[in-house]
Amino acid sequence: xxxxxxxxxxxxxxxxxxxSDASTSFKASPLVVHDPCPLRDQTQVHESVRSLLAGxxxxxxxxxxxKKRTLCCGEGGAVGFIDAAxxxxxxxxxxxxxxxxxxxxxxxxxxxxxxxxxxxxxLLDLLFFPDYVAWGHFxxxxxxxxxxxxxxxxxxxxxxxxxxxxxxxxxxxPA
Length: 175
Known about the structure:
Blueprint: H1 6-10, H2 24-28, E1 31-34, H3 43-55, H4 79-82, H5 84-98, E2 102-105, H6 108-114, E3 120-122, H7 123-128, H8 130-134, H9 145-160
Parallel strand pairs: 1-2, 2-3
Protein backbone atom coordinates (compact mmCIF):
# COMPACT_ATOMS: atom_id res chain seq x y z
CA UNK A 1 0.00 0.00 0.00
CA UNK A 2 1.32 3.44 -0.80
CA UNK A 3 0.23 6.49 1.12
CA UNK A 4 0.42 10.08 -0.03
CA UNK A 5 -0.01 12.76 2.61
CA UNK A 6 -2.21 15.80 2.18
CA UNK A 7 0.97 17.91 2.06
CA UNK A 8 2.26 16.02 -0.95
CA UNK A 9 -1.11 16.49 -2.68
CA UNK A 10 -1.32 20.20 -1.85
CA UNK A 11 2.29 21.06 -2.72
CA UNK A 12 2.06 20.96 -6.53
CA UNK A 13 -1.42 22.54 -6.50
CA UNK A 14 -0.09 26.10 -6.07
CA UNK A 15 -2.84 27.04 -3.66
CA UNK A 16 -3.63 30.74 -3.50
CA UNK A 17 -2.63 31.78 -0.01
CA UNK A 18 -2.37 35.45 0.68
CA UNK A 19 -1.87 37.52 3.77
CA SER A 20 -3.60 40.85 4.22
CA ASP A 21 -1.47 43.98 4.43
CA ALA A 22 -1.92 43.94 8.22
CA SER A 23 -0.15 40.56 8.38
CA THR A 24 2.98 41.45 6.42
CA SER A 25 5.15 41.67 9.55
CA PHE A 26 4.20 38.09 10.44
CA LYS A 27 5.00 36.93 6.91
CA ALA A 28 8.40 38.62 7.10
CA SER A 29 9.24 36.93 10.42
CA PRO A 30 11.31 33.77 10.12
CA LEU A 31 9.89 30.55 11.45
CA VAL A 32 11.09 27.01 12.03
CA VAL A 33 9.47 23.68 11.20
CA HIS A 34 8.96 21.00 13.82
CA ASP A 35 8.78 17.66 12.03
CA PRO A 36 6.62 15.13 13.89
CA CYS A 37 8.68 12.19 15.10
CA PRO A 38 6.52 9.50 13.41
CA LEU A 39 7.37 11.13 10.05
CA ARG A 40 11.11 11.47 10.63
CA ASP A 41 11.96 9.12 7.75
CA GLN A 42 9.51 10.65 5.26
CA THR A 43 11.82 12.92 3.24
CA GLN A 44 9.19 13.68 0.61
CA VAL A 45 6.80 14.95 3.29
CA HIS A 46 9.54 17.18 4.77
CA GLU A 47 10.22 18.68 1.36
CA SER A 48 6.53 19.16 0.54
CA VAL A 49 5.93 21.00 3.81
CA ARG A 50 8.86 23.34 3.24
CA SER A 51 7.84 23.86 -0.37
CA LEU A 52 4.32 24.86 0.70
CA LEU A 53 5.76 27.40 3.15
CA ALA A 54 8.14 28.78 0.52
CA GLY A 55 5.22 29.08 -1.89
CA UNK A 56 3.52 31.30 0.68
CA UNK A 57 6.59 33.51 0.82
CA UNK A 58 7.48 32.42 4.35
CA UNK A 59 11.07 32.47 5.54
CA UNK A 60 11.92 29.06 6.96
CA UNK A 61 15.11 28.80 8.93
CA UNK A 62 16.89 25.60 9.80
CA UNK A 63 16.49 24.27 13.30
CA UNK A 64 18.73 21.83 15.11
CA UNK A 65 17.11 18.42 15.18
CA UNK A 66 14.83 18.60 12.17
CA LYS A 67 13.75 16.15 9.48
CA LYS A 68 15.46 12.78 10.10
CA ARG A 69 16.96 14.07 13.36
CA THR A 70 13.76 15.57 14.76
CA LEU A 71 12.96 15.40 18.45
CA CYS A 72 9.64 14.37 19.91
CA CYS A 73 7.51 17.29 21.12
CA GLY A 74 6.89 15.46 24.39
CA GLU A 75 3.34 14.31 23.76
CA GLY A 76 4.18 11.00 22.10
CA GLY A 77 3.19 7.80 23.83
CA ALA A 78 1.06 9.74 26.36
CA VAL A 79 4.23 10.58 28.28
CA GLY A 80 2.52 13.62 29.84
CA PHE A 81 0.07 11.36 31.64
CA ILE A 82 2.79 9.08 32.97
CA ASP A 83 5.58 11.59 33.66
CA ALA A 84 4.52 15.21 33.16
CA ALA A 85 7.94 16.54 34.15
CA UNK A 86 9.64 14.46 31.45
CA UNK A 87 7.15 15.70 28.85
CA UNK A 88 7.86 19.31 29.88
CA UNK A 89 11.59 18.79 29.31
CA UNK A 90 10.90 17.90 25.68
CA UNK A 91 8.72 20.99 25.23
CA UNK A 92 11.48 23.12 26.72
CA UNK A 93 14.08 21.59 24.38
CA UNK A 94 11.97 22.52 21.35
CA UNK A 95 11.27 25.99 22.76
CA UNK A 96 14.98 26.60 23.34
CA UNK A 97 15.86 25.35 19.85
CA UNK A 98 13.25 27.61 18.22
CA UNK A 99 14.41 30.66 20.15
CA UNK A 100 12.28 33.69 19.31
CA UNK A 101 10.96 32.17 16.09
CA UNK A 102 7.46 30.76 15.75
CA UNK A 103 7.12 27.04 15.16
CA UNK A 104 4.99 25.54 12.41
CA UNK A 105 4.24 21.83 12.52
CA UNK A 106 2.06 19.45 10.58
CA UNK A 107 0.86 17.34 13.49
CA UNK A 108 -2.20 18.43 15.48
CA UNK A 109 -0.84 16.84 18.65
CA UNK A 110 2.52 18.59 18.33
CA UNK A 111 0.84 21.94 17.60
CA UNK A 112 -1.36 21.69 20.67
CA UNK A 113 1.38 20.42 22.96
CA UNK A 114 4.14 22.83 21.89
CA UNK A 115 1.79 25.81 21.87
CA UNK A 116 1.60 25.51 25.67
CA UNK A 117 5.13 26.87 25.89
CA UNK A 118 5.95 28.73 22.67
CA UNK A 119 4.03 30.12 19.67
CA UNK A 120 3.22 27.08 17.53
CA UNK A 121 0.66 26.61 14.79
CA UNK A 122 -0.41 23.93 12.36
CA LEU A 123 0.56 24.19 8.70
CA LEU A 124 -3.01 23.68 7.47
CA ASP A 125 -4.25 26.55 9.64
CA LEU A 126 -1.58 28.76 8.10
CA LEU A 127 -2.45 27.61 4.57
CA PHE A 128 -6.19 28.10 4.83
CA PHE A 129 -6.47 30.87 7.46
CA PRO A 130 -3.22 32.86 7.20
CA ASP A 131 -4.48 36.10 8.71
CA TYR A 132 -6.02 34.41 11.73
CA VAL A 133 -2.73 32.66 12.43
CA ALA A 134 -0.77 35.89 11.87
CA TRP A 135 -3.00 37.77 14.29
CA GLY A 136 -2.73 35.02 16.91
CA HIS A 137 -6.44 34.16 16.77
CA PHE A 138 -5.98 30.44 16.22
CA UNK A 139 -6.11 28.01 19.10
CA UNK A 140 -5.49 24.31 18.77
CA UNK A 141 -8.76 22.41 18.61
CA UNK A 142 -9.37 19.51 20.94
CA UNK A 143 -11.44 16.37 20.43
CA UNK A 144 -14.18 15.86 19.31
CA UNK A 145 -13.93 18.99 17.16
CA UNK A 146 -10.76 17.70 15.52
CA UNK A 147 -12.87 15.03 13.79
CA UNK A 148 -15.26 17.61 12.36
CA UNK A 149 -12.35 19.77 11.22
CA UNK A 150 -10.90 16.79 9.33
CA UNK A 151 -14.20 16.30 7.54
CA UNK A 152 -14.41 20.02 6.67
CA UNK A 153 -10.84 19.96 5.34
CA UNK A 154 -11.57 16.90 3.23
CA UNK A 155 -14.60 18.62 1.68
CA UNK A 156 -12.57 21.76 0.99
CA UNK A 157 -9.78 19.80 -0.68
CA UNK A 158 -12.24 17.82 -2.80
CA UNK A 159 -13.82 21.09 -3.93
CA UNK A 160 -10.53 22.87 -4.69
CA UNK A 161 -8.55 19.92 -6.02
CA UNK A 162 -10.90 17.78 -8.10
CA UNK A 163 -7.96 15.98 -9.67
CA UNK A 164 -6.92 14.54 -6.31
CA UNK A 165 -7.70 10.88 -5.77
CA UNK A 166 -9.86 10.02 -2.80
CA UNK A 167 -11.11 6.62 -1.84
CA UNK A 168 -13.40 5.84 1.01
CA UNK A 169 -12.65 2.71 2.98
CA UNK A 170 -15.23 0.17 1.97
CA UNK A 171 -13.56 -2.93 3.36
CA UNK A 172 -15.03 -4.19 6.58
CA UNK A 173 -13.28 -7.01 8.42
CA PRO A 174 -15.35 -10.15 8.91
CA ALA A 175 -17.12 -10.37 12.27
